[in-house]
Every structure is written in structure tokens, then in C-alpha cells.
Amino acid sequence: MKVTEHFAKAKGKTLVSFEVLPPLKGGSMQAIFNTLDVLMDFNPPFIDVTYHREEFIYKVRPSGYYEKTAIRKRPGTVGICAAIMHRYKVDAIPHLICGGFSVEETENALIDLNFLGINNVLALRGDARQFEERFIAHDHGHKYAVDLVRQIQEMNEGHYLDTNIVNGEKTDFCIGVAGYPEKHFESPNFETDLLFTKQKVDAGAHYIVTQMFFDNQKFFDYVAACRAAGIMVPIVPGLKPLTKRYQLNSIPRKFFVNMPKDLVEAAFKAGSEDAVRQIGIEWCIQQSKELKASGVDCLHYYTMGDTETIRQIAEAVA
Ligand code: FAD
């Protein structure tokens, strides 16, 4: 079932969904099952699986020179989605990125998803690779997520890259895209970022999932700004709890989001790592409750391998 159909079926009830990461290469699918066996108690209508492109690493050769090698540390997104759907009979949403893909490879990936019966996809640009200053698109790939959305939409209308294909099967993908309540870090300002988000929706995106945020007012203001700009699709808040003291610096650095003063002060004052985690959990529970009371379609939790923390939060909010 499509994400938007899940929301319609819920008739105003706030659903709960989760995002999981593929295990590191060499890891087992059991790690995902161990997470989801616990989180399935909350009846998520769908599970997102992130996509991780190759990264560069530098190996020291016996000569002392460095060898630059590209490796994918977390492959398996599509296989994991298929395994999740098979085991739990729940929808799985692969994240699909522009980075590293030619348009041909994107088309083939979408054909695989269609044949597997996966009809939801989160369309993203992806970030710059490690040691690259900015995002560099594949020579024959997409520069922005909006271009990927357009390609998916073309396939939904039965148009493939090979124009000799007539009467091609129309895919039926429900397309999600990313949104940034605190603006995307590369955008010159909030308004410009919103304009580009609107382009993604106008190109065919059916819903938006937000970057994590710790101040609900940022989300409410974002939704209001989207509506004022004519973006009328469902906007799903993405949530991640603070669980470690070092995240007070690493989360703003990695995700370009701010942490409210009260949360930061409480975490600084906390006497132990466990106390920081408890503060983060309680903060996320309060955020979730307020968002639920505001009538959001879904609370989407980034699990990031911390099943127990997310379980505690989902249980308190249920
Ligand atoms: P875009 O929408 O293309 O925007 C990128 C930047 O370009 C923005 O600053 C935007 O304002 C600007 N822009 C957009 N269109 C244009 C245009 N036409 N002209 C000029 N500027 C433009 N990354 C992964 O690698 N794998 C994942 O699984 C993954 N999952 C994510 C899930 C969520 C919910 C979120 C919020 C992010 C996720 N990311 C993931 C990170 C994401 O790839 C990065 O945030 C990336 O930097 C931007 O992706 P985007 O799809 O928002 O890009």
C-alpha cells in the first residue's frame, strides 16, 4: 500500500514509522530483524531503509604511498526492503539517491523495485562523498532530487528512457522527498529552499519527510510556510532523540539543526551518560506527544541502531 493510502486509511489517527540502516558490510540481516521484531509491536505501516553510496578510503601500500579505494560500507537497501516485506508483511521504503547513479542505472533500479512489488520510494539527492567539497553528480545522472522525482513520475506515466518503448508498463510509485524545517545547509536562505521543495512536489512528490528537529515550533512554522507556499502534501516529522553527550556537537555538525537551550542546559548538567540519555528520551517523548496532539499523520523515528531507546519512546507515546 502507498504511504498516502496508509494516511488516508488511518483517518486522522497518528501512525508511527521507523527508519533503519543496512548493517555494515559483513553484518547479518538478523541485526535488522532483531530491531524490527521489537518495533513491530507498534504496528508501523511502513519501514524506511536508507541508502549509502560508496565512500573513499585511503589504504597505505607497502611502498608508503596511499591507495584511494571506493567501498560501499552499507550495501543491501533493496534486498533488505524485500526481506522486510516478506517477513513482516509491511511496506518497506527504499531510499533512492541521485549520487553515483546514471539515469539508466536509476531506471533499472526502479524496474527492480517495481518487479519486487515495492511501490513507495524516498527520492533524495544524497550528500557529497567524504573528501569531496560538494555534491558531484554522475556524468549521466541527476543533479537534484527534483530531477529524480521527474524520472520516477515519467515512469509512472509509462515513459522510459528508451523512446522506442511504446506502451511501457506504468509504474505506480508513491514518491516521498526530504524537507528541512531549519533549511537545507547549502541553501542561501529558507525561502529559496522552500521554493525548491515546492518544485519537488510540483514534479510529482506525494509527501515530505523532514530532517530531524528538536524544537517543535520549527516544524509548525515549516508546515505553515509550506502551506502558504502552496505545498499541500502530507509532511511527516522525522525524530531522533539525543542519547549521548557528544551528540550535542555531532548532531548540529552532521545534520545542520539547532538544539534548544533548555535541552542543552539539561544535558550539560546531567551527571552521567545515562542521565543524558534519559533527558533525551523524555524530550523526544514530549515532542512526539505535542506533534501527535497537533494531528500529524505519522511520527517517523530515525532508529540509527538504537532499538531500545526508540522502543521506550514509542511505548510512552502510544
Ligand atoms: P535536493 O532537494 O536536491 O536539495 C539539495 C540542495 O539543492 C538544497 O540546498 C536545495 O535547496 C538545492 N536545490 C534543489 N533544487 C535546486 C535547483 N533546481 N537549483 C538549485 N538548487 C537546488 N542521504 C543519503 O545518502 N541516503 C539516505 O538514505 C538519506 N535519507 C534521508 C532521509 C531524510 C528524511 C532526509 C531529510 C535526508 C536524507 N538523506 C539521505 C540526506 C540527503 O541526501 C541530504 O540532505 C542531501 O544533502 C540533500 O538531499 P535532498 O534530496 O534534500 O536534495
Name the descriptors.
8-stranded parallel β-barrel; globular; two-stranded antiparallel ribbon; single chain; 11 helices; TIM Barrel; binds flavin-adenine dinucleotide; alpha/beta; 318 residues
Structure description:
With 318 residues, this protein is α/β, with parallel strands linked by helices. It has one domain: TIM Barrel, CATH 3.20.20.220. It has eleven helices and ten strands. The strands form two sheets. An eight-stranded parallel barrel has the order 1-2-5-6-7-8-9-10, surrounded by six helices. A two-stranded antiparallel sheet has the order 3-4. Helix 2 packs parallel to helix 11, helix 9 runs antiparallel to helix 10 and helix 10 crosses helix 11. The mean pLDDT is 97. Flavin-adenine dinucleotide binds next to strand 5, helix 5, helix 6 and strand 8.
Mind telling me the CATH class?
Answer: Alpha Beta
Query: Roughly what is the average pLDDT, rounded to an integer?
Result: 97
Number of helices: 11
Which architecture name does CATH use? Alpha-Beta Barrel
Largest beta sheet: strand ordering: 1-2-5-6-7-8-9-10
Strand portion: 15-25%
